[in-house]
Design a protein that fits this description.
With about 120 residues, this protein is mostly beta strands. It has strands at about 5, 10, 20-25, 35-40, 45-50, 60, 70-75, 80-85, 90-100, 100-105, 105-110, 120. The strands form three sheets. A six-stranded mixed sheet has the order 2-12-9-4-5-6, with no helix packed on it. A four-stranded antiparallel sheet has the order 1-3-8-7, with no helix packed on it. A two-stranded antiparallel ribbon has the order 10-11.
Amino acid sequence: QVQLVESGGGLVQPGGSLRLSCAASGSSWNYYPIGWFRQAPGKEREGVSCISSRGSSTYYADSVTGRFTISRDTASNTVNLQMNSLKPEDTAVYYCATGRVCSTYGGLQQPSVWGQGTQVAVSS
C-alpha cells in the first residue's frame, strides 16, 4: 500500500513561490501516477496537476498553467509541485494522491490514496 505525505506549505505574499513535496512510501509507488489537488474554504476539491508513473506525461489545470511545474524524483521518492507567481486565489489545502492514470486532458483519474494535505496561504 502506498502512503503519501505532503510538505512545503506556508504563507507567502502574492507573486511569491512555494515548492510542495509529496513523499511516497511503499515498494510500488513508482508504478502510480501522482496528482495534486486543492480545496479552498467553501469550495469543492479541484485537480491542479498530475504526472504519469514514468514522468512522461503531465497535466495542468488552466488556472495554474505557466505558473506551476510538477516533477517526479525517483531517487528520493517524491513528486514536487513548484508554484510560482502565486495569487490569493491559490490559497487552499493542497493534497497529493495516487490514481489510475494521469490524463493530459482531464487530470488524475480515479484518485484513491490521499495524503493529509498541506496549507498554502497567499496574502499580503
